[in-house]
Amino acid sequence: MTTEPRDWQSEADRLAAATDDPTAWFETLYAAGVAGEVSMPWDRDQPHWALQEWSHGRAAAEGARGLVVGCGLGGDAEHLAALGFATTAFDISETAVATARARHPESSVDYHVADLFALPPEWRQRFDLVVEIFTAQALPRDLRSRATAAIRDLVAPRGQLLAIEAILPADDDGSGPPWPFTRSDIDAFAGDGLSLVSVDELAQPDSFPLWRAELRRT
Predict the structure, then answer these.
(1) CA dihedral 143, 146, 152, 153 (to 10 degrees)
(2) What angle do CA 146, 149, 154 make, to 5 degrees?
(3) Long-range contacts of 169-178 (CB under 8 A, 24+ apart)
(4) Which of 69, 66, 126 lies closest to 93, judged by CA?
(5) Any alpha helices (H) in 18-121, and if so which ranges?
(6) Model-level pTM?
(7) Which domains does the chain have, with CATH numbers?
(8) pLDDT for 199 beyond 70
(9) pLDDT in tens, 32-76
């Protein structure tokens, strides 16, 4: 008899609670997804709808470079490449990156296995558009300031950051993951020359509402 894979979100909660390493469980979770032990985490080939909506009618300037933080299976990175960005994407999970490459064998995206807290120094202020969706909220709150600082440090002069995170609900018990964002958490992406351009509150049918923040380095 075939056994149905376990729900990946429940497995993420279990793995995160069982380790003191705040990032090691991502690889374990993706490997379990590939093995069929759990449903595939963050399983989508299309870009996140809030990114797709924001990018409608936009196109990359000639030579513009894009970066996707915590790229998972590659849907958002492939979207940036389709907009004309020379796109780099990274994830801490080797399995996620291998799966993204396998799903998009003809891709122009430069996929990397990398840790947000130990990125290549040549990436500093290199990218004209940095897209961050749900990576920072998957990390414990005591790492949030480090995570936001590492993300904004990727944005080139006159470049943009698009950050999409869940809005913290009033009844959140703080256990995580994820650890959703307050408005002040979103505002904290600004700094070091990066300024807020806009912050939108987005409703999702049958799901949690989202922040979508656009920032620019002056």
Answers:
(1) -150
(2) 130
(3) 169/208, 174/141, 175/13, 176/16, 176/140, 176/141, 177/12, 177/13, 177/16, 177/137, 177/138, 177/139, 178/134, 178/137, 178/138
(4) 69
(5) 24-34, 49-55, 75-82, 94-103
(6) 0.95
(7) 43-217 (3.40.50.150)
(8) yes
(9) 999 999 999 999 989 999 999 999 998 899 999 999 999 999 999
E strand spans, the chain: 65-69, 86-91, 110-113, 127-133, 155-166, 194-202, 210-217
CB 23, CB 84: distance < 8 Å: no
With tokens 């950051």, the residue in question is 161
Residues 6+ apart with CB under 8 A from 45: 73, 74, 75, 78, 103
Tokens found for residue 187: 């505002």
Identify the residue whose tokens are 């993300």: 151
As beta bridge partners, residue 129 has 66, 160
Kindly state the tokens that stand for 54.
């924001």
Helices (H), 91-200: 94-103, 144-152, 183-187
Vertex 176: Cα angle to 171 and 181 (nearest 5): 65
**pLDDT for the residue numbered 168:** 95
Structure tokens at 104: 């998009």
Q: From CA 91, how far away is CA 68, in angstroms rounded? A: 9
